[in-house]
Amino acid sequence: MPGTLRSALLKAAIVLLTAAIFALDALTSMDSAIAVMYVVVVLATVHVWPTRVLAVTALCLVLTATAHLVTSWFGVVNSSLARCAVSLAAIGISGYLAHAGAQATARLLQREESLRLSRMQLAHVTRVTTLGELAASIAHEVNQPLAAISANGEAALRWLRRQQPDPQEVEHALQRMLADTCRASEVIRRIRALAQKGEATFAPVDLPGIIHDCAALLQRELASHGATLVVEVADGLPPVAGDRVQLQQVLINLLMNGMQAMEPRGGTLRLVAAALPSTHGDGVRIAVTDQGPGIPDDQCGRLFEPFYSTKPDGMGMGLPICRSIVEAHGGRIAAVPGGPGATLEVTLPCSRQAAA
Amino acid sequence: MKPLVYIVDDDAALREALSSLLRSADMDVATFGSVADFMEHCRDDRNSCLLLDVRLGGHSGMDLHAELKSQGCALPVVFMTGFGDIPMSVRAMKAGAVDFLAKPVRVEELLDAVNQALARDAADRTEHATLAGLRQRYQTLTPREREIMALAARGLMNKQIAAEVGTSEITVKIHRGQAMKKMQAKTFADLVRMAEALDLR
C-alpha cells in the first residue's frame, strides 16, 4: 500500500525533523531563529495527524521555549529572547491556521460523505420504484413457472394413477418441475439483486452477464409494450470493474426509457456492447437505441439535469442518477445527437486502466 | 382415434406441462411456440380444438382467433391468460371462445373446457358433414330441377311454378319428384329444410 507507506515515512520524518530542530536550537548557539522551522513540522502534521495539529503546535511551542531556556542558561539575553518570541508567534499562527484548515477539510469530507450516502439512497429508491413499475410483468414472470409446476404436478399424478402407470412420463414431469423451480428462483434472484441496498462494491464485473440479466428481467415488460429487444454483445470485451447492481440499474433505466419513447407503437430496441476503438483508450461502449421520435439536438444536454423530463409523469431523476453512477465508475454517459430514434451511450473504462 | 388439442403458448415449459397433462387424459397434442408456427402447420382433419395463450409475444392470441375466424376456420378456442382481466375475457367470450382460463389453470377446469371445445368441434363437424352431403347431392340436380326445388321451397304451388318457368304443371311435378329423390328427401318438409340449409332463396 503506497499510501500508508508514504504516511508512515512522513510521520518518521516529522519526528526526526522535530528532534533535529530541537537539537540545533538547544545545543548550538547559532545566531538564527532555527525554531521557526517548527512551522514545517506543524504544516506536515496536517497531512498525517489532522486532528492533532493543536497538540503538535503546543509541543513545538514548549520545545522552542525550552531550547531558549537551555541556550541562555536561564539568563536573559535580549536578542535571543526576541528570536524566541518571533519563533513562538510564527509557530502559534501557523498552528492555528493549519488547525482551522484541517477542520474545514474535515467538514467538507463529511459533507461529501453524506452527499454520497444520499445519492446512494436515491439510487436505491429509484431502483425500487423501477421494480414497482415492473411489478405486473415480474409477477407474470414468476407466475409462469408456477403454472407450469402445478400443471406438471397434476400431469405426474394422472400418469401415476392411470391403469397402467407410465413411469417415464412421471419422470419427465418431475424433471420439468425441477427446471421450473430453478427458473422461478432465478427470477427472484434477479429482483433481489436489484432491490438490495448497500454500499457499492467495485469488483470486476461480467458485463455480458449483467446485460443478459437485464434483458431477462425486462423481457416480459418490453413485450407487453410491443418492444422487441435486440442485444448485440461483442466477443472479448475488455474487463470492466464496477458495481453490478448499479450498472444494471443504468441499463434498465436506458432500456425502459427507450421502451417508453416508442409508445404506443412499439418497435425495436437495440443494445450494443463493444470494445471502444483503441484510439479512444481501453474501455467498453454500451449504446441503447430506440425507434422513438428521437431527442432534439438542443435537448441532448438537458436530459441529464435533475427534474428535467420529457415524460408527462416522469420524475426526471433517472438519467441524472445514471450519470452519477457512470461517473463514479470513471465513465461517461451521453445522448448521441442525430439519427432516427434516440441513442444513449455509456462508456466505461476498462479495469486495467482504472487500476493504473 | 384420439381427439387432438393444439396448444399455442410462447412459454416452452408451460407448453410441455400442458401437453403432458392433456396426453395423460388420452388426447393427442400438437404444440406451437408462436402464432406463425401454428398458422404454417397444416391442420389434421379430425376432432380437435385450440388452447391459446392470450398474450403471445407481440401477437395477441385474440388476433389469432380473429384471423382464424376470417379464414373460415371454425376450430373451437379455449383461452388462457396470466393476466385474467374481465374486459379481456368478455372480449374473448364475445368472439366465440369456449372458455377463458386464468393461469395457473385448475386441471379440472382445463379438462372440462377442452372437452367442451372438442364436443363443440365434433358437433360442428357433423353439421359440416351433413351440409357437405347435401351439397354433393344438390350437385347431381339438373338446372331445371334446382330451379323448381328453389321455387317449391319458397312455397309456390305447382301451378304457379309452371307459370313462372313457362312449362306444364305435369313437367313441374316430374322435376319436383326427381329433385326429392336425388336429394333423398322423404317428405316435402325435408326438402324445404334442405333448401334452407343450402340457402336457396
Automatic annotation (TrEMBL), chain A:
Signal peptide: none annotated. GO terms for molecular function: ATP binding; phosphorelay sensor kinase activity. InterPro entries: HATPase_C_sf, HATPase_dom, His_kinase_dom, HisK_dim/P_dom, HisK_dim/P_sf, Sig_transdc_His_kin-like_C. Its EC number is 2.7.13.3. Pfam families: HATPase_c, HisKA. Keywords: ATP-binding, Kinase, Membrane, Nucleotide-binding, Phosphoprotein, Transferase, Transmembrane, Transmembrane helix, Two-component regulatory system. Residues 137-352 form the Histidine kinase domain. It catalyses: ATP + protein L-histidine = ADP + protein N-phospho-L-histidine. SMART domains: HATPase_c, HisKA. It comes from the Bacteria. The chain crosses the membrane at residues 56-76, 88-109. This is histidine kinase. It comes from Pseudoduganella albidiflava.
UniProtKB/TrEMBL annotation, chain B:
InterPro entries: CheY-like_superfamily, Sig_transdc_resp-reg_receiver, Tscrpt_reg_LuxR_C, WH-like_DNA-bd_sf. CDD domains: LuxR_C_like, REC_FixJ. Signal peptide: none annotated. GO terms for biological process: phosphorelay signal transduction system; regulation of DNA-templated transcription. Transmembrane segments: none annotated. Keywords: DNA-binding, Phosphoprotein, Transcription, Transcription regulation, Two-component regulatory system. PANTHER family: DNA-BINDING TRANSCRIPTIONAL ACTIVATOR DEVR_DOSR. This is DNA-binding response regulator. It comes from Pseudoduganella albidiflava.
